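Suppose a colleague, Dr. K., hands you the sequence of a protein chain of 344 amino acids and asks what its three-dimensional shape might be. Before reaching for any lab equipment, you can write down a predicted structure in token form. Begin with the sequence itself:
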Amino acid sequence: MNKLTLIRPDDWHLHVRNGDILKTVIAHTANQFARAIIMPNLNPPVLTVDQALVYRQEILQALPADSSFNPLMTLYLTSDLTQDEVKKAAESEFIHAIKLYPAGATTNSDSGVSDLKGIYPILETMEQVDLPLLIHGEVTNPDCDIFDREKVFIESSLNDIVKNFPDLRIVVEHVTTKEAVDFVLAASSKVAATITPQHLMFNRNAILAGGIRPHHYCLPIIKREHHRQALLEAATSGNPKFFLGTDSAPHLTGAKESSCGCAGCYSAYAAIELYTEVFDQAGALDKLEGFASFFGADFYNLPRNSKSITLQQQTWTVPATYQVNDKTITPLKAGEDLSWKLLG
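The predicted structure, expressed as tokens, is then:
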């Protein structure tokens, strides 16, 4: 097979920032995906429906003139979020979820939640109005090994959330461990997960191979090989609980290659090509359309897309950088060859 046609996919976990970075990266996503769940962790974060609608308009204005891309907006969950705002979000056709960041877990998460039990009234309202909860599932206790933070979060917090709110739709974002895969598999149909390309492609050796590789550094951090294998098995299984979410996170090259480099991999430039390569290598191209185009839409109770895209098996080289005015963004796999190319 040297050509592959898919129903146009969606990205169910995406960072596009704002300002000049947004103007640089948004066309990459719009070229491949019909829709994307937009993360709210700007600085300052997107806390209200009105703020989300302003941000949505900024995204739309940054798109190419002929684009039909639809940004699906989210709110940032804090202890100050009110039940009335949750209800307002549920009534909006543009707001599709609320995102939970444990305080300090990742980029721009300082405004996140420190006391999970304190937000239970909000989760109860979300359950009542059927508004999904998106979770960055890591503890932030400095005594916890960084490679164990997802596992410990499941044990200490996620089990209780699912038990207390059995009808709340939950997406465990960017799962990275076998424990997270097993948790999602054992949970009800109300619980699903997104999987990123970097966690399917790499194990933790990739961060340190031949020296520190800052453009492979993301949070949750890439784990051991047996975890990667568990993620690969889940993604290629055809199980509708697992679907595409790139967690593509653009940072300026200088911010990544600094004395304290920030977390995030920029994959939006060729996200569907990266996933196609992974599924091809696993002998599972027949499972890609469900993972990329169907299962996320079904979970979010949205119609599946009707238009299609076509990829061709073709070797091409990833650019070293993408320009943002006088600065750059370095993409995942910069300067390396990929084996599939999106046509058109």
